[in-house]
């Protein structure tokens, strides 16, 4: 039987913290019944834990409401829910840590304001300051003139944290939130709504009133059809074994490497291959690399425009939402910091970049020959860095849910309720990239994860802030149609310059990115 680790801890914050709610009682071997079971120990699971445990979020309340919350004793009147978190890793952020370590990623792409703490958007910045780690923050290069009226542009929230700072912050946050961490892999979720049985591989069962699935990637690894014929000894996906196979780069027999992909991961793999001493590194993509600071347009997290984008997105039919989510991400993009590195390596002759289709010509005993734009090249190793394709039914847990409670699948994504529930289950939620149709194109990044976690926990009706704000309405009633319309109405009179607009057909126009041509 897998051992569960009880994580004690009071909820404390650097400033403006509410009184600490009573900790959940420690479970015994005969007591594995929880209020909430979170499946996934990554940033999405941590964001859900924070949103569930915190009595309210001061970011989502006006100053007067925060004062009233303190005065009325919302935090002290509420007992924190009993929560367990299930993940195959032995600690929080295991998958994240292994993948980032494999790629030797130093800086996050998401800014300081993007993190799992539901209480305060400034908490990562406060953590960096209080621990003397200003050196772990990097100027993102975002044009602050675009955000001159937004406080994030002048408070450091648009700077980039180092991955080490972010991971340390997440471990610190998890240690302060009472919960039980269970190492295991979920095999099935069964039982009636509100009385779920979460079965783990090996036979162990957990009981929970509510379940949140924070599963990470929305489907299997994407593989171009032309690569299917290549044996595994010459080809792997960048995520294989949580990035473990990247160790093969630069080995005695793996010196000539082809990396296929048009996004940030492909660039990171190519740079890693050069760093590991590969004698020939080619980066091939179907279209020119696109440079953009963040994985979606800046307007999606600009507080002046976010509600507008979300409101317009939510009002579209599901098919258009799926198309808009794909368009907003643009098939992958590369931040300027990494693009400069690519161009430097090209200038030095250590990296070649090609745009075009890759065709496998022959598979030899010790190499693979491919044709790129009519020219034959030989490689010892091919790394597929094309990401993951949305196909939720390839995930066993969701495939079983679909059998029990069928819902519409659009573009590989499940059509959840506006509160991110699966079908008629009112206490079974899905967040992360799998919730793209309901959250938006940023559903899989840190900003979208935090927003989705708040949406799910609001719908559970356990959040003191939701009860305070909506004392005469149920949370689900308040969010019955377009949850972002109210916020959009409140900020639609902004006199700021907008970089996202609606065209005459009502489509969401995506921020224009810059294509970087290959070196001659």
TrEMBL record:
Q: Sorted alphabetically, which Gene3D superfamilies does this protein's record hold?
A: FAD/NAD(P)-binding domain
Q: Where is the composition biased (Acidic residues)?
A: 488-508
Q: List the InterPro entries hit by this protein, alphabetically.
A: FAD/NAD-bd_sf, FAD/NAD-binding_dom
One MF annotation (Gene Ontology) recorded for this entry: oxidoreductase activity
Q: Where do the record's region annotations for Disordered lie? A: 1-32, 486-520
Query: Where in this chain does the record put each FAD/NAD(P)-binding domain?
Result: 194-295
Q: Which residues lie in coiled coils?
A: none
Question: What protein name does the entry list?
Answer: FAD/NAD(P)-binding domain-containing protein
């Amino acid at each position: 039987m897998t051992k569960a680790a009880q994580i004690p801890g009071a909820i404390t914050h650097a400033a403006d913290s509410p009184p600490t709610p009573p900790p959940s009682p420690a479970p015994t071997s005969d007591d594995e019944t929880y209020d909430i079971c979170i499946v996934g120990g990554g940033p999405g699971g941590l964001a859900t834990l924070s949103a569930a445990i915190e009595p309210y979020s001061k970011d989502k309340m006006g100053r007067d409401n925060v004062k009233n919350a303190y005065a009325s004793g919302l935090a002290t009147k509420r007992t924190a829910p009993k929560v367990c978190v299930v993940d195959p890793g032995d600690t929080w952020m295991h998958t994240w840590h292994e993948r980032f370590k494999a790629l030797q990623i130093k800086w996050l792409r998401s800014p300081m304001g993007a993190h799992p703490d539901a209480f305060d958007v400034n908490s990562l910045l406060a953590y960096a300051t209080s621990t003397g780690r200003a050196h772990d923050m990097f100027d993102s290069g975002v044009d602050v003139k675009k955000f001159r009226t937004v406080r994030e542009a002048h408070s450091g929230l648009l700077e980039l944290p180092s991955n080490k700072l972010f991971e340390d912050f997440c471990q610190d946050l998890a240690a302060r939130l009472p919960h039980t961490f269970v190492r295991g892999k979920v095999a099935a979720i069964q039982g009636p709504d509100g009385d779920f049985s979460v079965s783990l591989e090996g036979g162990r069962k957990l009981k929970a009133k509510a379940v949140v699935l924070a599963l990470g990637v929305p489907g299997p690894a994407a593989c171009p059809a032309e690569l299917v014929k290549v044996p595994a000894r010459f080809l792997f996906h960048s995520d294989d074994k949580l990035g473990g196979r990247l160790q093969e780069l630069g080995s005695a027999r793996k010196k000539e490497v082809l990396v296929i992909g048009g996004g940030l991961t492909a660039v990171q793999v190519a740079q890693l291959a050069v760093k590991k001493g590969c004698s020939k590194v080619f980066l091939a993509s179907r279209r020119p690399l696109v440079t953009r600071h963040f994985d979606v347009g800046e307007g999606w997290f600009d507080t002046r425009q976010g509600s507008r984008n979300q409101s317009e997105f939510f009002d579209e039919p599901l098919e258009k939402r799926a198309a808009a989510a794909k368009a907003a991400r643009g098939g992958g993009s590369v931040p300027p910091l990494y693009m400069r590195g690519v161009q430097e390596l090209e200038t030095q002759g250590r990296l070649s970049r090609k745009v075009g289709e890759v065709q496998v010509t022959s598979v030899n005993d010790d190499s693979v020959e491919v044709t790129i734009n009519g020219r034959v090249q030989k490689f010892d190793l091919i790394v597929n860095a094309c990401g993951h394709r949305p196909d939720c039914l390839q995930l066993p847990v969701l495939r079983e849910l679909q059998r029990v409670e069928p819902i519409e699948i659009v573009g590989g994504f499940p059509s959840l309720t506006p509160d991110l529930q699966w079908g008629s289950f009112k206490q079974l939620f899905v967040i992360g990239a799998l919730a793209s149709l309901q959250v938006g194109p940023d559903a899989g990044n840190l900003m979208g994860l935090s927003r989705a976690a708040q949406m799910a926990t609001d719908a559970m009706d356990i959040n003191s802030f939701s009860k305070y704000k909506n004392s005469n309405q149920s949370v689900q009633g308040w969010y019955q149609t377009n949850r972002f319309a109210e916020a959009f109405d409140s900020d639609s009179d902004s006199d700021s310059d907008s970089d996202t607009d609606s065209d005459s057909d009502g489509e969401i126009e995506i921020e224009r990115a810059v294509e970087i041509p290959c070196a001659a």
